[in-house]
Amino acid sequence: MKKIIALLLVIFTVVPFAAACRKNTAEPTESAKPTETASAAESETESEDEAKKTEIMNYVKELSGGLNFAGKTFTYIGKEYDTGSNFPKKEEETGDIESDAVYFRQRDTEELFGIDMEYVRTETGEVTADQVKNEVMAGGTSYDLVHGSTQTTGQTLLNSATIRQVDNLKYVDLDQPWWIASIRDDYSITNRLFFLTGPIVVDNYNDSCCILFNKTVTSMFGIDDTELYNTVKEGKWTIDRMIETASVIPENSTGTGVYRYLEPYGYAFIFSSGMKITSFDDEGNPSVPEALPIEFSNLADKLCPIFSNKAETVFTDYRKSEDPQKTYGVEELQEFFIDNKALFKFAYSAGAMDMRKYDVSFGILPLPKLNESQKNYCTYARMGMDSAVYIPRTVADINMSDAITEALAALSEIYVKEAYYEKLLKGQSIFDLESRDMIDIIFSTKVYDLIALYSGADYNQMGTFLQTLEDGIKLDNSNLASGYKGSARLCNFNAKMLVKAVAKID
Predict the structure, then answer these.
(1) Mean pLDDT throughout 262-268?
(2) Which band of pLDDT confidence, cut at 50, 70 and 90, is reported for residue 215?
(3) Count of other CB atoms within 10 angstroms of residue 356
(4) Taking the alpha carbons of 323, 329, 332, 333 in that order, is the dihedral positive or negative?
(5) Cα dihedral sign, 142-172-176-459
(6) Which long-range contacts link 156-160 to residues 24+ away (Cβ below 8 Å)?
(7) Lowest-confidence pick of 266-270, 375-379, 457-461
(8) Which domains occur in the chain, in start order?
(9) pLDDT given at position 108
(10) pLDDT digits (tens, 9 = 90+) for 275-286
(11) Which DSSP string do the residues of 94-136 spell out, in sequence order?
(12) CA gap 216, 214 in Å, rounded
């Protein structure tokens, strides 16, 4: 019987930035200064972490105890990335923290199961999908595990019926903490799951929504950073509280002052408010409401007047072919945050790792709840950036693919999470201990939505349906209801096609 290890899964990301470095003269806050109490707490946490690592390693050893695939090769295919790769840069320890993390999980897996791991690196998710699809449809067994974006690789493999159901495997245990629990509910189709995600997928450090706040700006306008953090911890960080906090900054009608908001993501607030777009019937068939839900409409009525007001919010309107240089005289909008001219920056994941390149002092918050009665914060995994692993339908040895996938996932909880979450994100990318707590909250409340697979979107396009919601919440809500209705019909047609495709997977 599989053991249940009570360990919280957390994930975060890297969002690349390219603007030039700027000088920030803000003094560190008190919360940024180490204390003896903090050191003692960190030591206690380190001891707990070591115990968890030992427990996980024992789990993997027990898993491998009755299995030996001596001499076999386990082939893992996926897109290669400059950063955040699922594959090591070299199959040896190099001192590169990200590469070593992936290498260590490979090393232990090879030793415990007697296998050799081989990587097939592709340039894009589309290439990955095509190679796997063609191989499976020809009856080939070259690949044991596939990695890629759910919208590119995953969607293609689903539609071609070339991957396996993964919630009924012998060794993959979805109750374990190294699998994101919400994926089972959020990404199942006809009550069957085909995607797996967690720290095994390094790309998932790229897809979580959050808010960065500029500490120089909070100091300028008398906003208490500690109070912001405590508001989150007390469950009182709501949309109204966010608006109230930002309102102490005067409207910036001339463009020479400080803005309240920078680059908001409209439809992400649907999820942070505890709502979902996709609903499922008793058979697990996905759909969206044909008429605009009143909850979505109310949210648009609350946020659109703020996010579309250029005296409050920095944004570019794609409908008018705006670009940052023409509209604001900057190459990238994030320059306002770097130059201490914006309070809240809406980011995908920390943005913190790369934001450390700039001399700007900032903190991290989750997206706000709708109201205090909402039970949990909800962190949306950005469409197009969320990735998963898949098992091809024609693997040569399903027991090997099954067991090695579970082992890689468990070992990723030790090595990959340690590298990205603890050392890179929590250790290097933030300025205070409270932000670490915020990251914990963000990671432990991650949610997905199947809409990514049937909205007509791909990696580079949001799709008509989600673009309608985005525009209504951020740019103009006057035609949201009518635009939604037409887009919803197309969405539901695509959902039915997806269900038909999945029915072909035996």
Answers:
(1) 92
(2) very high
(3) 16
(4) negative
(5) positive
(6) 156/126, 156/129, 156/130, 157/129, 157/132, 157/133, 157/194, 157/390, 157/392, 158/189, 158/194, 158/453, 158/498, 158/501, 158/502, 158/505, 159/498, 159/501, 160/133, 160/136, 160/501
(7) 457-461
(8) 30-37+47-205+383-443 (3.40.190.10), 208-379+461-503 (3.40.190.10)
(9) 96
(10) 999 999 999 999
(11) -S-HHHHHHHHHHHHHHHHHT-EEEEEEESSHHHHHHHHHHHH
(12) 6
**Is the pLDDT confidence value at 397 over 90?**
yes
β partners of residue 345: 212, 262
Local confidence band at 425 (pLDDT 50, 70, 90 cut-offs)? confident
CA-wise closest residue to 181 among 409, 349, 352: 409
Please state whether 461 falls in left (phi above 0), alpha (psi between -120 and 50) or beta: beta
Instruction: Estimate the crossing angle of helix 433-443 against helix 225-233, to 10 degrees.
Output: 30
Looking up tokens 């999908």, which residue turns up?
129
pLDDT category, 386, cuts 50, 70, 90?
confident
Per DSSP, which regions of 324-465 are E strands? 342-348, 362-365, 379-380, 387-390, 446-447
> Given the structure tokens 């594959």, which residue do they identify?
87
Sheet holding 387-390, edge to edge: 116-122, 73-79, 145-149, 387-390
pLDDT in tens, 295-315: 999 999 999 999 999 999 999
For residue 126, name the pLDDT band (cuts at 50, 70, 90): very high
Q: Which of 379, 409, 463, 458 is nearest to 5 (CA)?
A: 409
Please identify which residue in the block is written with the tokens 């950073």: 225
Angle formed by the axes of helices 464-474 and 294-307, nearest 10°? 60
- 399, 64 Cβ separation under 8 angstroms: no
Please enumerate in sequence order all residues whose Cβ is within 8 A of that of 500, keeping only pairs 6 or more positions apart, or say none.
Answer: none
Per-residue pLDDT of 52-103, as tens digits, reads 899 999 999 999 998 889 999 999 999 887 555 788 888 889 988 888 999 9
Residue carrying the six token digits 């050893």? 61
Residue pointed to by tokens 């919280």 = 8
Lowest mean pLDDT, pick from 21-30, 215-224, 432-441, 456-465: 21-30
The pLDDT of residue 271: 95
For residue 222 the two structure tokens come to: 């008398």
Q: Which three-class secondary structure state does DSSP give residue 387?
A: strand
Residues 436, 118: Cα–Cα separation, whole Å: 36
Contact predicate 247/312, CB 8 Å? no
Contact 342, 336 (CB under 8 A): yes
Angle at 196 between CA 381 and CA 412, to 5 degrees: 90
